Amino acid sequence: MTKMGYQRFAWSVVFLLLISSILAGCGGKSPPESQKASSDAGSEEDQITGELNLFNWSEYMPDSVIKKFEKEYGVKVNYSVYSSNDEMLAKINAGASGYDIAVGTDYMVEVMRKENLLEPINLDNITNLNNIDDQFLDKSFDPGNEYSVPYMWGGAFIAYNKDTVDTEITSYKDLWKPEFKNSLVVLDDQRIMLGIANKMQGESMSSTDPKVIEKSKELLIDLLPNVKAFDSDTQKTMLLNGEAKAGVVWGAEAYLAYNENPAIETVLPEEGMYLGIDCFIIPKNAPNKRAAEAFIDFVLRPEVSAEITEDFPYSNPNKAAHELIGEEIMNHPAVNPPEEELEKGEFLKDLGETVLDYDRAWSEVKQ
């Protein structure tokens, strides 16, 4: 090789080494196998695949929303239902670990959090959380929303058919009148029904006083001749078909009944109504936690949240969705009660060991 040829060769080697160095600094160099494995693991953790097992009340999630999620994410959703918070807790507590996501009411979130039945939610994956009104976040039952994300909220109201009821209804105690013999539909929920009886005594819905609980049991036993059915799923059906003249019903059921028959009136009881925030939760050891978080974030989109309320008109904590919801829904007292009524309302609290007293009382009511 000539001297000139050798110099050209040397400069070529230097040039190639320089380019390699630059590419390595810019990330152009392939990572070592250990780094590559770590990178792959992170992407797999963030991958949304498989199936999602959703555990919820009936008539609380439109099929259209589920289908849209399935189409967008390629994840099949299996929808299972329950009739009360207690039923949901019992199934999860008994080891029903196949659920990826459930919906629990505020006080039940606290119970399950304390019993270590919930997975913490990665809020970095809930990008639409800022659509939720601040008043529904960082509540005492779950500080910082570590284990729950608000879904819907609302209350239990009195609804009655003005065409078939002669008496004016303003209070829970009106439901005990003989006029309603065998013609009431009431919620099949021990905390709410015993809580209502507590309120009639001027006590808290979450009273732990044994005397108050015993008196509430007696009041509900006295109500039994008027009760046609205990139903937490579709109270509107009995109001519309004439089987029930009145009842204690969910807000959405009161609105839907009114929407089909304007003679169905909603009453906000003078004692103060039950209020609750229903939240998404992820059970401990959920098989597909990442898909659960994706579903929560999907539902919090304003257009999706509004679609849910249009189908099942519960009160919606998603402030970004409000302008997309029809005015008739938003202005109905069963969906958005006046502020002064909310101030009289009451959220349930975790009872601790006293829940056993409520269990016993409820069993004696329904025996």
TrEMBL record:
Q: Which organism is it from?
A: Siminovitchia terrae (Bacillus terrae)
Listed name of the protein: Spermidine/putrescine ABC transporter substrate-binding protein
Give its localization: Periplasm
Q: Which UniProt keywords apply?
A: Periplasm, Signal, Transport
Checking Gene3D superfamilies in the record gives:
Periplasmic binding protein-like II
* Record PROSITE patterns: PROKAR_LIPOPROTEIN
Q: Has the keyword Magnesium been applied to this entry? A: no
The record, for CDD domains, names: PBP2_PotD_PotF_like
